[in-house]
Design the sequence.
DNA sequence: CTTTAGCACTTATTATTTCCAAGTGCTAAA
DNA sequence: TTTAGCACTTGGAAATAATAAGTGCTAAAG
């Protein structure tokens, strides 16, 4: 259905369009394919009929459709080696042993945005294979305590809680002791039910006034269980792309970046590096999202790169794979 | 120099322009001042010569200059009462006793942006009257510890640190013990020097292999001392203003919001609610920043509202004052 | 001295027209 | 199957014209 020269033409058009952001005309491919513009035009027409190419108007050159990008990504794209210069930058992340994981990830984001000029995001969420390692309730004033939860993977969360009434120091340390005795080692996604069904019924036997403290810890913990961190780099980068040359598109994408739902669209579901083009991204028809999931040290992380549909696919994929592999080696 | 009617005209022009975002012509003020447009024109000319008004072009109506806004804000503006509806929203922050301070502040931001349709920011930084209350070093693996620092104001910071070599559990708890014994009660801005001059010299007597652990804690602590939190709400709101109708201005302001220097421009220096118009904001000539400083529970917070120069000054100032007063009462 | 009516003048904005470059589809011949 | 040739379409830039809003100034009136 789609011949070899046509594949090659599609590839050239996608790559040319990625480079220049301008529709590609038949004449510009003549030298490369050693044939006349009419021949190219015939093939282009064919590719258009099959849905791989589009025109902006009747007499414009061709641009790839989403289907065209998809075909390119699935069958035509060649992986791109990381350039020496870029490799040097990436090395700074992994050669520095002092850097702990979360700093390494942040640094990676920074470098991705710097090299690609796209927007990058990392989304972290304590994963279910964290076990509770330690609980602390630290009195601050007579009516406030700070509750601290630490997991065996080293994730720490804290929350300052107002008690609704004055509570005795001794009670606080007793509560803390009981919580530790009964909860240490519990997977975090089982803590809630253990709290409710095993601890709540008996804690009254040891601690008077237990309700206030129980509630305080419960609140702190629920904070922990749902906590997500989102970090962006180069949010403004995408605006540099020529596809965002009119106000409404710019305002639109900026609003989407600010909205809360963006988190769901970004969260990776696959361990591989996956590409979501235009509509597939469910974020905005004008963007491509390339994302992957990394499970690291008890945290599920999603890293995503957001750019225009004419993104440098090969470059970004190679880079994400490299970073993913090296982070996992480090972790 | 500037007569009573002229003041009144200036006030009307500022308020009209704030409402409509369009230059104000002489005719539109006739009814209000019960005189002909020519009279108004004479006064306008005078106000322009004094620098309070500007024209966009020779035959346009007048708009306030930055000096005009400044005069309005300093001498003409009347404080605006908070509407019943808005008051209701604000009450939800302060009536809820369960809400701890940092949640209350976040909630305030949200409501400010919601009511005003401007952008709001809060900037927090541990202030110098925090004293160290507790230090913990918790081993996670043989080569990682989590260092936790807690102050008497309930601020908690933690950092996971890679040790460069394997360290014995006992050493860790000994170090932790010493740090606590010697540091508890120390104001956080004196911890660094105390660490270096009092603890480093003697810790070797108690803990072998102390260097690794000392460095780990030192790193965790320096993380703490410099940590700043920045929270935005309604970042995209400002784009809704008609002054941002061309791409470049939009891209410009978005980039500025993303840049790191913005923090310096936002940080409040004054306990009062202060207004910085256009250039005065040092952020962008097209915006006004209204900000104030709140010292709360051991944290220095700056709250800022960013909007167009034709901001609803009265409304925002009243609202910020109300929030500031009530947060300080709560804290 | 202040206010007003009248008028010529300026400018942004919008719509209309004209022109050009780029590129297409199609036909007929090679 | 490829190519040359040509009529045709479109977006975009530049030029032109028409309109609305509002000014400054002058001279007369209050």
Sequence:
């Amino acid at each position: 259905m789609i011949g070899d020269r046509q594949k090659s033409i599609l590839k050239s058009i996608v790559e040319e369009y990625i480079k220049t952001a301008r529709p590609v005309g038949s004449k510009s491919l003549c030298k490369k394919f050693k044939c006349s513009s009419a021949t190219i035009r015939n093939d282009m027409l064919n590719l258009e009929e099959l849905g791989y190419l589009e025109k902006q108007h009747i007499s414009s050159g061709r641009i790839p459709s989403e289907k065209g990008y998809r075909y390119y990504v699935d069958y035509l794209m060649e992986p791109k080696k990381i350039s020496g210069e870029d490799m040097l930058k990436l090395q700074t992340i992994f050669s520095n042993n002092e850097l702990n994981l979360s700093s390494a990830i942040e640094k990676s984001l920074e470098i991705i945005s710097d090299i690609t000029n796209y927007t990058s995001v990392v989304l972290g969420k304590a994963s279910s294979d964290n076990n509770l390692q330690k609980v602390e309730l630290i009195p601050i004033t007579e009516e406030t305590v700070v509750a601290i939860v630490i997991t065996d993977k080293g994730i720490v969360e804290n929350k300052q809680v107002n008690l609704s009434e004055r509570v005795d120091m001794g009670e606080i340390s007793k509560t803390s002791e009981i919580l530790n005795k009964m909860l240490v080692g519990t997977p975090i996604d089982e803590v809630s039910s253990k709290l409710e069904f095993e601890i709540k019924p008996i804690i009254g036997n040891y601690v008077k006034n237990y309700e206030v403290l129980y509630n305080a810890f419960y609140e702190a913990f629920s904070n922990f269980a749902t906590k997500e961190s989102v970090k962006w780099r180069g949010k403004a980068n995408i605006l540099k792309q020529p596809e965002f040359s009119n106000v409404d598109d710019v305002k639109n994408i900026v609003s989407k970046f600010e909205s809360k739902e963006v988190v769901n669209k970004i969260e990776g579901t696959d361990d591989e590096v996956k590409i979501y083009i235009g509509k597939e991204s469910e974020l905005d028809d004008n963007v491509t999202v390339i994302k992957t999931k990394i499970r690291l040290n008890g945290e599920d992380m999603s890293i995503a790169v957001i750019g225009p549909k004419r993104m440098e696919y090969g470059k970004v994929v190679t880079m994400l794979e490299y970073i993913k592999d090296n982070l996992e080696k480090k972790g």
